[in-house]
From TrEMBL:
<dbReference type="InterPro" id="IPR005225">
    <property type="entry name" value="Small_GTP-bd"/>
</dbReference>
<dbReference type="GO" id="GO:0005829">
    <property type="term" value="C:cytosol"/>
</dbReference>
<dbReference type="Pfam" id="PF00009">
    <property type="entry name" value="GTP_EFTU"/>
</dbReference>
<feature type="domain" description="Tr-type G">
    <location>
        <begin position="9"/>
        <end position="278"/>
    </location>
</feature>
<dbReference type="InterPro" id="IPR041732">
    <property type="entry name" value="RF3_GTP-bd"/>
</dbReference>
<dbReference type="InterPro" id="IPR009000">
    <property type="entry name" value="Transl_B-barrel_sf"/>
</dbReference>
<dbReference type="InterPro" id="IPR027417">
    <property type="entry name" value="P-loop_NTPase"/>
</dbReference>
<comment type="similarity">
    <text>Belongs to the TRAFAC class translation factor GTPase superfamily. Classic translation factor GTPase family. PrfC subfamily.</text>
</comment>
<dbReference type="InterPro" id="IPR038467">
    <property type="entry name" value="RF3_dom_3_sf"/>
</dbReference>
<dbReference type="InterPro" id="IPR031157">
    <property type="entry name" value="G_TR_CS"/>
</dbReference>
<feature type="binding site">
    <location>
        <begin position="140"/>
        <end position="143"/>
    </location>
    <ligand>
        <name>GTP</name>
    </ligand>
</feature>
<dbReference type="InterPro" id="IPR035647">
    <property type="entry name" value="EFG_III/V"/>
</dbReference>
<dbReference type="InterPro" id="IPR032090">
    <property type="entry name" value="RF3_C"/>
</dbReference>
<feature type="binding site">
    <location>
        <begin position="18"/>
        <end position="25"/>
    </location>
    <ligand>
        <name>GTP</name>
    </ligand>
</feature>
<dbReference type="InterPro" id="IPR000795">
    <property type="entry name" value="T_Tr_GTP-bd_dom"/>
</dbReference>
<keyword id="KW-0648">Protein biosynthesis</keyword>
<protein>
    <recommendedName>
        <fullName>Peptide chain release factor 3</fullName>
    </recommendedName>
</protein>
Length: 530
């Protein structure tokens, strides 16, 4: 046990996942309000940056300072030290969004009560499942007409394949929203307008058996509530901390982030039910966060968009021990001792230099171009590497054509560097070498990023020709399969990634199944761990 145990135990590091507009930003703001990090629940990030056309890309990048600052937030609440990882959505959705989840110990899933499970939530959820981290559900916007509560839970269970356990239960929705019933205390937390959530709401708790409740909810609503509770007690999974910790059971809460209702209740329960920093797998075995020696891994690299400053920021998740800025660390992949330069941490809206940080915390360090995603840094004298970060399946593909073929060298250098940072993935046609380059991205905005950066940083202009592929699969058992002899469908294309791994691209999702049928023993995967 290290002397830092106390500090590490009070840390809670989680990501909030949702489909755009479900209320992730609003909920984060309210968390900060409770944490006292901001006085009024003002804007966490400039709203303008969240909604923009692709052509405004330069503007986004100018404001990237803001987006960087809001990508990790630290604040204190009760005795906890909380790190929230932002998962960029909208056009900002990219592979980084997935990678961020690799640094979290749990996830809060925000669902719009009138929409249910939506596309982006589904995608992000898959990554949480792969990691077996606890997942908590906040069903938001109950002040608007919501879908039937049982149907919402049913949808989560069926679509996402996770059992649910409602911790509280909503009474009505929209104009008839009266509050939530806590199944444990048997008390109703009554809903009152909190001036659009700019104040911490005055929430009143009334026992379900107290006659005062009749002043708040109609007889009809009360009957419905009692009926639903009875149904629920008989039908839903019981709360089981073990199952929650393994990511098999999601505790569900209801509320309205905008009016700041149900948020503090959620935060309190969540902090108790979620986990302190989790151990992590490395090539030397599992590393305990409480270990004395510092270690961390890089999960995201943010390029500086100012071409006069080609430096980057590498985001690291501390996995064990304590980080001290004055001490040397060892960069395992670079095989070098070094001092991490200008380590920064973000507290609400302020970015400040950190002198020390603990397991569970995220720091951003100045990167002159030496780090790659997944790299490990640890205490000098130690030498182990954390399990790598998988490569996630791109969803959009384009063929790259270079306008000026004389600049081949710059082009190859630029595109390789940008790929190394993890903004794009590049593929070559199977068996043809570098002539034809296909780029794959998770979010389409990355195409513009590529074009802009090649032009501005490498002075190379390119044309992108969109390709119709939408599904990509790595060949898991590539050593057992003769890729040249694979028979697929007519829409299938064979390519290789930067590391020479063979992959298959498909236009139609059914082609994936067809190809598996036609090639016995073939194992395909949506992630690459190589
Ligand atoms: P994000 O895209 O998930 O970050 O969503 P935002 O937090 O930006 O919210 C999207 C829109 O929904 C904004 O206009 C919010 O004001 C609104 N919103 C968020 N939470 C609630 C809520 O509880 N009730 C209502 N009625 N609107 C909400």
């Amino acid at each position: 046990m290290s002397q830092y145990t106390k500090e590490i135990e009070k840390r809670r590091t989680f990501a909030i996942i949702s489909h755009p507009d479900a209320g992730k930003t609003t909920l984060t703001e309210k968390f900060l309000l409770y944490g006292g990090a901001i006085n009024l629940a003002g804007s966490v990030k400039g709203k303008a940056t969240a909604r923009h056309a692709v052509s405004d890309w330069m503007e986004i990048e100018k404001e990237r300072g803001i987006s960087v600052t809001s990508s990790v937030l630290q604040f204190h609440y009760d005795d906890y030290c909380i790190n929230i990882l932002d998962t960029p959505g909208h056009q900002d959705f990219s592979e980084d969004t997935y990678r961020t989840l690799m640094a979290a110990d749990s996830a809060v899933m925000v669902i719009d009560g009138s929409k249910g499970v939506e596309a982006q939530t589904r995608k992000l959820f898959k990554v949480c499942v792969m990691r077996h981290i606890p997942i908590f559900t906040f069903i938001n916007k109950m002040d608007r007409d919501a879908n039937d509560t049982f149907e919402l839970l049913d949808e989560i269970e069926k679509e996402l394949g996770i059992a649910t356990c409602p911790i509280n239960w909503p009474i009505g929705s929209g104009k008839n929203f009266r509050g939530v019933y806590d199944r444990n205390t048997r008390k109703v937390l009554t809903f009152s307008d909190t001036q659009k959530g700019t104040k911490e709401g005055v929430e009143e708790e009334i026992s379900v058996d107290d006659s005062r409740l009749d002043e708040v909810i109609s007889q009809e609503q009360k009957e419905q509530l009692l009926e639903e509770i009875e149904l629920l007690d008989g039908a839903s999974a019981e709360f089981d901390q073990e199952q929650v910790s393994q990511g098999k059971l999601s505790p569900v809460f209801f509320g309205s982030a905008l009016t700041n209702f149900g948020v503090e209740t959620f935060l309190k329960h969540f902090l108790k039910m979620t986990t302190s920093p989790l151990p992590r797998l490395a090539d030397c075995g599992v590393v305990d966060p409480m270990e004395e020696d510092f270690s961390a891994f890089v999960f995201k690299i943010q390029a500086n968009m100012n071409k006069n400053h080609r430096d980057r920021i590498a985001f690291m998740r501390i996995c064990s021990g304590k980080f001290e800025a004055s001490r040397e660390v060892y960069h395992v992949q670079g095989e070098k001792k070094m001092r991490l330069s200008q380590p920064q941490q973000l507290m609400a809206q302020d970015r400040h230099v950190v002198e020390e940080a603990y397991a569970g915390d995220i720091i951003g360090v100045f990167d002159p171009g030496i780090f790659s995603i997944g790299d490990t840094v640890c205490a000098p004298g130690k030498k182990f590497a954390y399990e790598g970060i998988p490569t996630f399946a791109p969803e959009h593909f384009a063929r790259v054509r270079q306008m000026d073929t004389m600049k081949r060298k710059q082009f190859v250098k630029g595109i390789n560097q940008i790929a190394q940072e993890g903004a794009i993935q590049i593929f070559q046609e199977f068996n043809t070498g570098m002539e034809e380059i296909i780029v794959g991205v998770v979010g389409v905005l990355q195409f513009d990023v590529l074009k802009y950066r090649l032009k501005n940083e490498y002075n190379v202009e390119i044309l992108l020709e969109n390709l119709p592929y939408e599904h990509i699969r790595w060949i898991e058992n590539k050593d057992e399969v003769d890729v040249r002899r694979l028979t697929g469908t007519s829409d299938m294309k064979k390519v290789t990634d930067l590391k020479g791994n063979p992959l298959l691209l498909f236009i139609n999702s059914w082609s994936v199944g067809m190809t598996l049928d036609r090639n016995e023993g073939l194992v395909l995967s949506e992630f690459s761990r190589n």
